[in-house]
Each structure stands twice: as structure tokens, then as C-alpha cells.
Amino acid sequence: MFLEVRAGNAVARALYEKEGFSQIGTRRGYYWNGEDAVLYKLP
Fold this sequence. Notes:
The chain is an alpha+beta fold. It has one domain. The chain is about 20% helix and about 35% strand. The protein has one helix at about 10-20, and strands spanning about 1-5, 20-25, 35-40. The longest helix has 9 residues, at about 10-20. The mean pLDDT is about 95. It comes from bioreactor metagenome. One of its GO terms (molecular function) is acyltransferase activity, transferring groups other than amino-acyl groups.
């Protein structure tokens, strides 16, 4: 399973990491305001 989340969404990122997701990459400037998207994968 894969997902992406705004880099600035610390609450969601902490939840995904707690549930076992691992960060696998970043999409620079992905969102309309230039914010990056962080990519996660569940092993």
C-alpha cells in the first residue's frame, strides 16, 4: 500500500509512521502552493 501526504502535515505523518509506513520519497512542489508531498509505503 502506498500513500502521499503534505510535508507540513506533521500529525498525519506521525500517525502513518506509527502504523508502520516507511517514507520512500518526496515529490517536490507537488501541491498547488508549492508544498512537497511525502511518499510512504507499508511493507
